[in-house]
Design goal:
This protein is of the alpha+beta class. It is 64% helix and 15% strand.
Length: 447
C-alpha cells in the first residue's frame, strides 16, 4: 500500500512538472517566417479553406455521376378512398345516377432502387468550371495570407530587435550619465560650480531612466506580439538569433531597385483575375439555362398488397416491377427573366474587368512608391549613421569642456539629447530598411 501511494504521488508530480514545462524557441528571421506560415492562426484556417474548396469541387463533380437511391414505403388505408361511378351499364343502378366504389387493400408496401444519371445539363458543365475557380480563389487567398504574414513577421521581428538595441544604448547612456552626474555633484560640494549644473544633469538622467523603463515595457509587448503572429503560446520562451545591424546589412540590396514590375505576378492582380473569371462563368451559367437538359433513370423494386399485415411471412407474395425513363427539359419562355439575369451577369463581368484595370494601375503606383521609399531609407541609413558619429563627437567634446569648466551643463545636456535622438533615429532607419524591403518584395512577389 505504501509503495502504491509513493508511486501515485510521483506520477502526479511528474504530470504537474510536464504541465509547467515551457517550450523554448530560438529563431532567425527566416525561421520565424517559415514557422509563422505553418503555425499562424490565419494560415491554419487558410489551409482549411483550401481543403474545403477541394471537397466542394468534388461535391460539384458528383452531381453529374450516377446516383443510386433506395426507398421503402408502407401505407395503411385507415379509410379507403372512394371513386364516383355513373349508374347503368356494368356497375348497375339507374342510368345517370352516381354511386361510389372503393379500390385497394388495407396494407400496401413498396421497396425499390432508382439509378439516375444526368446525361446533359449546361449548368452542370459551368458548375465544374466554377468549382475549379473556387479552388483557385482559395489557393490565392492562402498565398496572400502567407505574404501578409511574412511582412508582419518582418516588421514585428524588427521591432523586437529595435527594442533590444534601444535598451543597450539607454543602459550605456545611463552609465555614462550617472558617472558625469556623480562627478558633477562632487565638484558642486567643493564649491567650484553652481547647483544648476547638477540639476540640469538630474533632469537628463530622469528622462533617460524613464525612456529605459518604457522601452523595456515595449519590448515585452513586442515579443508577445511576435509570439502571437508565430502561433507560439505567450507563456513560452522566444529568443531571436539575429542582430539588428547584421540584418540591416543583409537587407540593403541595390539590385532590387532595378527589378521590373509585372502586375500579373502580384497576388492582388491574380485575385482580381479570379473575380473576373467567376463573373464570366456566372454569365455563362445564365446562358446555359437556355439549353435543354437530359436525364435518365432506371427503377426496380417490389410491392405487396394485403388486408392483414403479413408482409414478413415466408408465404408473402411480392410483385416485382422495373422501368426505364428518360426526361428532356426544354426551356421555352420565361417572360424575359432569363434575359434580365444575363444582362445583370454581363454588367457584373464588365465591372470586374474595370476593377482589374484599376487594380493594375494602383499596383504600378504602389510599386513606384515602395521603390522610392526603399531607396530613401537606404540613403537615410547612410545619412543617419554619419549624423550619429557627428553627434557622438560633439557630445564627447562637450564632456571634456564641461569637466574642464569651459562649458555649462546646459550645453552638455543639449549635446546629450542630440546624441540620444541621433541614436534612436539611426536605429529606426535600420528597421525602416528591413520593413520597406519587405513591402517592395511583397509587391513584386519575390520570395
Amino acid at each position: 500500500m505504501k509503495h502504491k501511494l509513493i508511486f501515485t504521488l510521483f506520477l502526479f508530480a511528474s504530470i504537474l512538472q510536464a504541465q509547467d514545462k515551457k517550450e523554448s524557441y530560438s529563431l532567425s528571421l527566416q525561421q520565424s517566417v517559415e514557422h509563422a506560415i505553418q503555425n499562424n492562426y490565419s494560415a491554419i484556417n487558410a489551409n482549411r479553406d483550401i481543403e474545403a474548396a477541394k471537397h466542394k469541387k468534388w461535391e460539384t463533380t458528383t452531381m453529374g455521376l450516377p446516383q443510386i437511391n433506395g426507398t421503402v414505403s408502407y401505407l395503411n388505408n385507415l379509410q379507403y378512398t372512394k371513386q364516383g361511378v355513373t349508374g347503368g351499364g356494368t356497375f348497375g343502378g339507374e342510368p345517370g345516377s352516381v354511386s361510389t366504389i372503393a379500390f385497394g387493400t388495407k396494407h400496401i408496401m413498396n421497396a425499390g432502387v432508382t439509378l439516375s444519371q444526368l446525361l446533359f445539363d449546361g449548368s452542370y458543365l459551368v458548375g465544374l468550371q466554377s468549382a475549379k475557380v473556387y479552388l483557385k480563389i482559395s489557393e490565392n487567398a492562402k498565398l496572400k495570407t502567407s505574404q501578409e504574414i511574412r511582412e508582419i513577421v518582418v516588421n514585428s521581428y524588427g521591432n523586437v530587435l529595435l527594442a533590444d538595441e534601444s535598451i543597450l544604448i539607454f543602459e550605456k547612456n545611463k552609465v555614462v550619465l550617472e558617472k558625469t552626474l556623480s562627478d558633477t555633484k562632487q565638484i558642486f560640494k567643493n564649491g567650484l560650480i553652481e547647483e544648476e549644473n547638477v540639476e540640469q544633469l538630474q533632469i537628463t538622467s530622469a528622462s533617460v531612466n524613464s525612456a529605459l523603463a518604457n522601452v523595456k515595457r515595449q519590448r515585452t509587448i513586442a515579443v508577445d506580439m511576435l509570439k502571437l503572429i508565430l502561433g507560439i503560446n505567450l507563456d513560452n520562451e522566444l529568443t531571436l538569433t539575429e542582430k539588428l545591424e547584421d540584418l540591416t546589412q543583409k537587407n540593403v540590396d541595390i539590385l532590387l531597385l532595378q527589378e521590373e514590375f509585372k502586375a500579373t505576378n502580384n497576388i492582388d492582380y491574380q485575385i482580381g483575375q479570379n473575380l473576373q473569371e467567376s463573373k464570366r462563368l456566372l454569365l455563362k451559367y445564365e446562358r446555359s439555362k437556355e439549353l435543354p437538359s437530359l436525364g435518365a433513370a432506371v427503377n426496380y423494386g417490389y410491392n405487396a398488397f394485403e388486408n392483414k399485415f403479413n408482409f414478413f411471412s415466408k408465404d408473402q407474395k411480392w410483385n416485382n416491377f422495373a422501368n426505364l425513363g428518360v426526361s428532356l427539359n426544354v426551356p421555352i419562355f420565361s417572360s424575359l427573366g432569363t434575359s434580365a439575369r444575363k444582362q445583370q451577369a454581363k454588367i457584373a463581368l464588365e465591372q470586374a474587368t474595370t476593377k482589374l484595370t484599376e487594380t493594375e494601375q494602383k499596383l504600378k503606383l504602389q510599386f513606384e512608391k515602395a521603390k522610392s521609399d526603399y531607396e530613401f531609407t537606404i540613403e537615410e541609413l547612410v545619412t543617419n549613421k554619419t549624423n550619429l558619429k557627428l553627434a557622438e563627437r560633439i557630445e564627447n567634446k562637450q564632456q571634456v569642456k564641461f569637466k574642464e569648466g569651459l562649458s555649462t551643463s546646459f550645453n552638455l545636456s543639449e549635446a546629450q539629447r542630440q546624441l540620444y535622438t541621433a541614436q534612436q533615429t539611426y536605429l529606426q532607419s535600420m528597421v525602416d530598411v528591413i520593413n520597406k524591403k519587405a513591402t517592395l518584395e511583397k509587391l513584386i512577389n519575390k520570395k
